[in-house]
Amino acid sequence: MGTLLEVRDLTKTYAEGTAESKAVDHVNLEVEEGEFVILMGASGSGKTSILHLISGIDTSSGGTIRYRDMQSTKPIGENSVDFSRMNEKEKTMFRRANIGIVFQQQCLIPDLTVYENMMLPLMLDRRRKDKDSRRNTILKLCAQFGLKDHIGKYPSQLSGGQQQRAAILRSIANRPPILLCDEPTGSLNSAQTEIVMDLLEELNKNGQTIIVVTHDIQVAVRGKRVLYIEDGRIEGELKVTESGDREEKLIRFLQKKGW
Ligand SMILES: Nc1ncnc2c1ncn2[C@@H]1O[C@H](COP(=O)(O)OP(=O)(O)OP(=O)(O)O)[C@@H](O)[C@H]1O
To answer: What family is it from (predicted)?
Structure first.
């Protein structure tokens, strides 16, 4: 275990006429391997902007985003991977191999089965050339995480919760060290949300590092560390331990923040 992601002085500004607005304002953050981090905060506080920057989807206005060199066992440092030094192509290649991303609207391709959808990232991953190994990876993941009976189905034949589970498994099929989720349950009802969060919790117990942006207490309570974002800054942090009433602690924390 060690630091997987190190964010220093991260800033994102947008031009507003002649003025500038700061969506992300000098954010510092470290994420350890195996963590389950939640980003909460009011609408427009900067949660998605932070996630887009650390996924390399968007480009920062300042600061650094370093990932530990995944091929090396050395701790994060000068030889780590710094997004601000990469061009778009390098970022895409790095993201494809190392970062899983899940959005609110899961993006399964409707004309492909769950199996075929999950095959896509594996085919794009240059490290995985062996057909049998790709197939076995998908079968194993579906068996382990409750999608075995749905593997040959099309997305339209699945419930919203099952579709999102399939989208999550697709995102981690090539074993990215980190999984980033933006409102992964935003379009689901409470029962479906539980189904999706059960999967994320299980993946995290298996060592998957996860960061989730959410508005939902039902989601946030499953994380281990909640960061409260306000005006583009991290303005509070709560470590959620196994003991005691996690939901009550979280609600008290959020109330103090004016939630
Ligand atoms: N492409 C853009 N151009 C200009 N301003 C933007 C752009 N994207 C985001 N912003 C602004 O940056 C700020 C942060 O937006 P962001 O989407 O990160 O917030 P959020 O906390 O994720 O909100 P929500 O919970 O509503 O999704 C907001 O003021 C938003 O209007």
So the answer is: Belongs to the ABC transporter superfamily.
Enter the ipTM: 0.97
Write the residue with the smallest CA distance to atom 30 of ligand 1.
44
Closest to 226 (Cα-Cα) out of 29, 86, 4, 44: 29
**CA atoms within a 13 Å half-sphere pointing along the CA-CB vector of 28:** 2
Would you call 1 helix, strand, or coil by DSSP? coil
Q: CA distances (Å), 195 to each of 144, 190, 198, 205, in order?
A: 14, 9, 5, 16
Nearest CA to ligand 1 atom 13: 23
Give the position, in ligand 1's atom list, of the atom nearest the Cα of 213: 22
Sign of CA pseudo-dihedral 125, 146, 250, 185: positive
State if residue 243 touches ligand 1 by the CB under 6 angstroms criterion. Answer: no
CA 22 to ligand 1 centroid distance, Å: 10
Tell me the C-alpha distance between 64 and 48, whole Å. Answer: 17
Per-residue pLDDT tens digits for 138-152: 999 999 888 999 999
Overall average pLDDT of the 237-256 stretch = 87
> What confidence tens digit (pLDDT) does each residue in 53-91 have?
999 989 999 999 999 877 666 666 666 778 877 888 888
Rounded to the nearest angstrom, the distance between the alpha carbon of 49 and the centre of ligand 1 is 6
pLDDT band at 105 (very low <50, low <70, confident <90, very high): confident
Segment 190-223, tens digit of pLDDT: 988 998 899 999 999 999 999 999 999 999 999 9
Amino acid identity, position 217: I
Pick the CATH number of 3-256 from 3.40.50.1980, 3.40.50.300, 2.40.30.30, 3.20.20.210: 3.40.50.300
